[in-house]
Amino acid sequence: MTSQVSEAATEAVAPAPSSRTGRIRRFVDPIVFAIFFVLAWQGFIWVTGFHSVVLPPPSKVWGVLWNQGDFLVGNMLDTAVTIAWGFFLGGVMGFVSGVLINHFEAVKRAIHPILVSLYVIPKAVFIPLLILWWGVGFEYKLLVTVLLAFFPVTENTITGLNGVEQEMVELTRSLRGSNWFGFRKVSLPFALPFVLAGLRIALTESFIGGVLSEVLVPGSAGIGSRIVEAAAFSNTEFIIASIMVIASFGIVSYFLFLWLERRLTFWV
Amino acid sequence: MGIELKGLGKTFQTSDLTVEALRDISVTVSDSEFVSIIGPSGCGKSTLLRLVSGLIPPTLGEVSIDGVPVVGPAGNIGFVFQAPTLLRWRTVFKNVMFPYEVLASQKRAVMSREDYEERAEMLLRMVGIDDFRNAYPKQLSGGMQQRVSICRALLHDPTLLLMDEPFGALDEFTRERMNEELMRIWRETQKTVLFVTHHIPEAVFLSDRILVLSARPGKILGEIVVDLPRPRTAEMRDSVAFLEQVVITRRLIGQADGDGNSKESP
Ligand SMILES: Nc1ncnc2c1ncn2[C@@H]1O[C@H](COP(=O)(O)OP(=O)(O)OP(=O)(O)O)[C@@H](O)[C@H]1O
Ligand SMILES: [Mg+2]
């Protein structure tokens, strides 16, 4: 009996490792495809002599990245500051309001429907107002980003906390533990996967907020403004290069977050 | 701990529904007594345990423990919920240690952490899952999870043990073994136990008394004083006296069930 149990234990704790080649191919396959795609694009322009202002060949885009890379990344870092602050503030505010809304029945009744209605309004409609109130500086961009990052975190926090089973709350209560203890040790860990998923959505929303707020105001700091300016000169290779810089930042931060999320919620 | 229930009634009131779960329950359970509760699904058994634990207040009547009216959870209760209710982000061992953490957070722990850890090890060994101490709940079967939750309910050595169908998810073989373990613990620690089950031989094997509840609203339909000597041993299950007790209990439950079928839909 005992030896059977211990055998079962090792089996349960160490699942069969996923195949190594499978994991490598998950990375290699998209890269191979991307290279193929770029070559096909270059080949298409060679063969057809397509107008390079409308669709520049990859070689020209590469040229911009090579010669103006520092400039692009510098501007992207300006944008990243907005994104990071917006993500951070929106995330914290979203989480806190989610907790409060869930905790106070009255607040939930009064505020939650309003939040849901705000959630479904396309946030872009608020931008003219925000510009009127705050000008076109950092504060305005930060507000746009916060506005976008806030809602997914609130919604997911509420969903997560709502899912806590009655018995889990009763477990702490039956031992006469405090509500605060129950919140920290039971409700919060229970809701964590939801909160993190909300934050992951908020991260992509923050990228939208950061860049969108800049695209609307040429002449300001950040890569979004550089894009609209380049558009005025039909500088398509510059635009595409900028997009690639934004995309790289987005992809890297997204996967870093995903990695962190998986580590923090290993039990899911 | 002695428990006294006086004219206990519970009605749940939600915005669109009123459910009378329990009506006029009056029972006295003496110190160190083992009492089982049997009744059809939805008759208020879990509700009764919640009332006794002080987790929910009664609509009518009163619960008192050792003569003191219950107004909230007392803290020296071990509750085994109907579902295992393990915390998924904690290892088996950390789940069993949970009551210690609650007590320690309020400086109510009566032993050192090491002593509680030793006790947790002992309890896990007793239910045969010490090899899984570092596993996570999702790596365990339902029956194993329930055994962990039993260890958790026993960690702080509660004087009152409330068990809501703790062995419902176990196979017959493990159930009988767990019954014997529970008997041993009970004998050694003299806890008062309220034990909800649907399994008649289990109730007979374990209990001093069996309360049979009617279908909703749950009322006490009758009680059976189990007339078998103690300590109860595994062999006793095959004795004529044991089978007689099972038959008596089943008859009484048959009555409750008939009641239930005619009243099931509101
Ligand atoms: N928190 C609650 N709110 C509203 N109704 C409830 C609540 N808890 C229980 N009830 C109702 O009270 C009745 C009794 O429920 P309870 O869980 O005590 O039954 P039970 O005897 O434990 O059933 P089972 O054997 O299926 O576990 C049910 O009709 C249930 O719907
Ligand atoms: Mg129940």
Mean pLDDT of chain B: 91
Low-pLDDT stretches of chain B are 260-266
User: From N to C, what is the helix and strand string of chain A?
Assistant: HHHHHHHHHH
Bound molecules: adenosine-5'-triphosphate, magnesium ion
**CATH topology title of chain A:** MetI-like fold
| Number of helices in the DSSP assignment of chain B | 8
Explain the overall architecture.
The complex is a heterodimer of chains A (268) and B (266). Chain A has helices at 2-13, 20-48, 58-103, 105-120, 127-134, 138-162, 166-174, 179-215, 223-232, 236-264. Chain A has 268 residues and is an all-alpha fold. Chain A has one domain (56-264): MetI-like (MetI-like fold, Orthogonal Bundle), CATH 1.10.3720. Chain A is flat. Helices cover 37% and strands 24% of the residues of chain B. Chain B is built from eight helices and ten strands. In chain B, strand 1 (3-14) and strand 2 form a beta hairpin. Residues 260-266 of chain B have low confidence and may be disordered. The interface between A and B is medium-sized, with 29 and 36 residues. Adenosine-5'-triphosphate (ATP) binds next to strand 1, strand 2 and helix 1 of chain B.
In short:
The complex is a heterodimer of chains A (268) and B (266). Chain A has 10 helices and no strands.
Index terms:
heterodimer, A: 268 residues, mainly alpha, MetI-like fold, 10 helices, 82% helix, B: 266 residues, alpha/beta, 6-stranded mixed sheet, 4-stranded antiparallel sheet, 10 strands, disordered C terminus, binds adenosine-5'-triphosphate, binds magnesium ion
Secondary-structure topology with pairs:
The complex is a heterodimer of chains A (268) and B (266).
Chain A: H1 2-13, H2 20-48, H3 58-103, H4 105-120, H5 127-134, H6 138-162, H7 166-174, H8 179-215, H9 223-232, H10 236-264
Helix pairs in contact in A: 3-4, 3-6, 3-8, 3-10, 5-6, 6-8, 7-8, 8-9, 8-10, 9-10
Chain B: E1 3-14, E2 17-29, E3 34-38, H1 45-53, E4 60-65, E5 68-69, E6 77-80, H2 92-96, H3 98-105, H4 113-126, H5 142-154, E7 160-164, H6 172-189, E8 192-196, H7 200-206, E9 209-213, E10 220-225, H8 240-263
Parallel strand pairs in B: 3-8, 3-9, 6-7, 7-8
Antiparallel strand pairs in B: 1-2, 1-4, 4-5, 9-10
Helix pairs in contact in B: 7-8
Bound molecules: adenosine-5'-triphosphate and magnesium ion (MG).
